[in-house]
Amino acid sequence: xxxxxxxxxxxxxxxxxxxxxxxxxxxxxxxxxxxxxxxxxxxxxxxxxxxxxxxxxxxxxxxxxxxxxxxxxxxxxxx
Amino acid sequence: xxxxxxxxxxxxxxxxxxxxxxxxxxxxxxxxxxxxxxxxxxxxxxxxxxxxxxxxxxxxxxxxxxxxxxxxxxxxxxxxxxxxxxxxxxxxxxxxxxxxxxxxxxxxxxxxxxxxxxxxxxxxxxxxxxxxxxxxxxxxxxxxxxxxxxxxxxxxxxxxxxxxxxxxxxxxxxxxxxxxxxxxxxxxxxxxxxxxxxxxxxxxxxxxxxxxxxxxxxxxxxxxxxxxxxxxxxxxxxxxxxxxxxxxxxxxxxxxxxxxxxxxxxxxxxxxxxxxxxxxxxxxxxxxxxxxxxxxxxxxxxxxxxxxxxxxxxxxxxxxxxxxxxxxxxxxx
Lengths: 79, 333
Description:
The complex is a heterodimer.
Chain A: H1 3-17, H2 31-35, H3 39-53, H4 59-63, H5 68-78
Helix pairs in contact in A: 1-3, 1-5
Chain B: H1 3-13, E1 16-20, H2 26-37, E2 41-47, H3 49-58, E3 67-70, H4 74-85, H5 94-100, H6 104-113, E4 119-122, H7 128-139, E5 149-155, E6 166-170, H8 180-198, E7 203-207, H9 218-233, E8 238-243, H10 245-249, H11 251-257, E9 270-272, H12 276-288, E10 293-300, E11 305-308, H13 315-331
Parallel strand pairs in B: 1-2, 1-4, 2-3, 4-11, 6-9, 7-8, 7-9
Antiparallel strand pairs in B: 5-6, 5-10
């Protein structure tokens, strides 16, 4: 799967998990400063990635990602 | 009869099914056996049945006390998956769940989510992080609850509060620096925990260095905001503050400092700390100077009762925590 394809799917999933509009999100959106979500949202996101992209991420690895772009890179590495 | 003896008696009257995903661990198996043999719980061991059976025999236990679940047996596993994905608000789909259920801890939690067991008890081979993460992913948080947290039950010699020598306090172990919303969740969960475990009518004080505006500052603002959120979310519960600790538990101090009606001031049986710095120091003070026994931490906020025990705990403490978890599960049904 191409990076752009993964990115667009991840943006949709982030929008859903963090209850944001997908148009507000990009590769450089920061989980900490822009989304300020609790771990509950990250759990939802990791579950969704596992369901839809069939990639099992460690929650600790996903939580260590600064931006949505970092998360996409992590998914690429795991694929 | 001490509070812990009362809890043991209560467990016997309505034994619950407790899943042990670390079945082969020597301490865990012994604790499960003692709790099962004495009629406090029905222990369910999860893993490889041949290995478990052999170990039970080697250790000289009566195998009839245990139910053993074969983690590799496909028919039951599929029935679990089918029932799990049919539940509302579950996160994982079939393929992801199937993969995760190769792990005994997550298998146990799926059994719990569908109601085949009442408690998941782990924490010796699995880390606290493993237990909390699996719990969030598979069991999930209660509706409206923003964080996992914990409370402890202190039995303080010489303290004569509204529940005698007992006082529930939280969170002294899990949620480091809660925001107002999370602090409200801790208070709400704590009320539900003491109700299910001890049948108390909870009177929950959110404490600070100020009583109802006697001081000012952002540390206090967080606590007052949390009280407001908690009252909006759960108007059925008596949650009040901000109070100083003495105004929360001493009727004489409350009479002086709290100039409005309060169902909590002076007679709180649950104390919620503003953050983990306070919580940890406070529990150490109660233990060191008050010579109190502290039971817990009891995890709360999950949809069902999960217990993460302490790795260094002796078997007697494990049995106590197993029984406490079982009584909580029975009380929250």
